[in-house]
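User: I'm putting together notes for a lab meeting next week and I want to include a structural view of one of the chains we've been expressing. I don't have a solved structure, so I'd like a prediction I can at least talk through. The sequence is below, exactly as it appears in our construct file.
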Amino acid sequence: MISLPLNFSRTRLATAALSLIVLGLGNASWADDVVPGLLPAIRKHVTLVSTVPENGDQNPYGVFVAPTSVGRIQQGDVYISNFNNAANLQGTGTTIVSYSPATKQLSTFATLPHDLAGCPGGVGLGTALAVLKSGWVIVGSTPSNDGTTRTKGPGCLIALDAQGTVRKVFADEKINDPWGNMAVIDKGDSATLFVSNVGFGVGSPDGEPPVFNQSTILRIELKLADQQPPEMVDETVVAHGFGEQADKSVFIVGPTGLALGADDKLYVSDALGNRISEIREATTRSTSAGVGRTLTRGGFLSRPLAMVMTPQGHLLVTNGLNGKVIEIDPATGTQLYAKWIDANKAQTPPGNGDLFGLAMHAGGGSFYYVEDDVNTLVLAQ
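Assistant: Thanks for the context. Below is the predicted structure for the 381-residue chain, given as structure tokens.
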């Protein structure tokens, strides 16, 4: 990436960006209304480690950076949940692995039984993953017995302690295939989790799977005290009506990315709607906002998936149908930059279906992502 002076005009910047793309010297696209952001500073992508543990689990989905050191958890380590087992069957992965930037080694934090008591349908660890300051790890299960949605169960949320031991399972009528990366407010002795649920109505019928507009965003309040298992003190559906659809390649397509922004707004990547939705009064509302307000649609987006907030207050969103990440200004809805981070030509378009998990590096100037086609953790810096 070539650095440009701050006084470079928007027209000249757009022209320069286009020239770089045409000449093959750059791999980012710019919107006309350019503001300082994170993606222009990203210069290289470093493959850190294979995410496959000893039991052979594959298809890394969830990514979360540990905020503190507790028990076996070390601050800054990267935690990753695996969705597939060694036979590459979706919804059957049972491991959480961790990567240490200090030692550059991968270790297995937890291996769960597929048939976990209290978790309807069993264990298939998806993108919903969070590591809390108190040392509790919360992970979502979207399970299958044969790798298809035909045998899909409603799953659960699972709480593990800082040693990697399952201590609590949350399952009820509001939790149905907790899927997307969680947005988290962590106060130490309490936590607020936002998680999407994509299993309502979805099955595996013959022919083209129908779209069900039944997916929800659930707000969960947890009490965390005295090393006791987390206690759920409240759960509220803050949004509903998002599209969800069974899919042979990625199991289910539905709202995946969740990120909290300024003014108590929650942002949702609506994959089937190819848009980013804004849910207002996210932490205080007692009723559903439906599908919320459309912040931005189309443009650089191509089935938006994982999403995080940058230190600049922008949204980073991975695409599901190509290997790009998009940077968006939530104050205006402007799509600022689009950058290839996975140009693997084994897929069409390049990187199609490869990007799921996404997390900011603790330093704030770079980010982690997983390439699930080759089971690797990568640092963009």
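A couple of points you could mention at the meeting. Residues 174 and 348 are 36 Å apart (CA to CA). The longest strand covers residues 231-247.

User: Perfect, that's what I needed.
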